[in-house]
Design a protein that fits this description.
The chain is an all-alpha fold. The protein is built from 8 helices and no strands. α5 crosses α7.
């Protein structure tokens, strides 16, 4: 377990609370993204589960859309853990929101140019038709990553942690 935490945190020891916060924030952000994509799909005249039907092409079963929804949440949780392991460094809501927005843009680029063409070409083929909604969904994911640290009182509206004298203190 120790080795897995060090690997996922890029060589830095990741505390269990960071892992749990990343998991929670990733799932909540994934839910926000899923609801947006479902409503966006419905507004275009497609079934609400259409984005997850496309992801479900990875799983050639009659229940592919449910597997696609599950796969979406697994990726959302992993991205949330990755964000809190490697990027999240402050206790400021403003800075975390900015970091989350940049992370959302980065994940949009990774999803659009790496994951979809390699693993889900059916969805990559249809991406130009939903490009604005797809981009906004990733921005929404990144912006909502701030939800758990803020709701649990770990993030404040004050100044970022890197302005404090004890930046390298691990007890923060």
């Amino acid at each position: 377990m120790y080795l897995a935490r060090r690997i996922i945190a890029g060589g830095r020891y990741m505390r269990d609370r960071e892992l749990i916060v990343g998991l929670k924030a990733g799932l909540i952000s994934g839910l926000a993204m899923a609801v947006f994509l479902m409503l966006y799909s419905f507004s275009l005249g497609a079934p609400m589960m259409h984005p997850f039907n496309l992801i479900g092409t990875l799983f050639p079963t009659p229940y592919g859309s449910f597997f696609g929804l599950g796969f979406h949440f697994v990726l959302a949780a992993l991205y949330g853990i990755l964000f809190f392991a490697l990027i999240y460094k402050s206790n400021s809501v403003y800075l975390t929101l900015f970091e989350g927005l940049l992370f959302g843009i980065f994940m949009w680029a990774v999803d659009t140019y790496v994951i979809l063409p390699v693993f889900i070409p059916e969805m990559a083929y249809r991406l130009p038709f939903i490009a604005r909604g797809w981009f906004f969904a990733h921005i929404l994911y990144g912006a909502s990553l701030v939800s758990i640290p803020f709701l649990e009182g770990r993030a404040e509206w004050g100044k970022p942690r890197f302005f404090k004298d004890n930046f390298f203190d691990e007890s923060i």
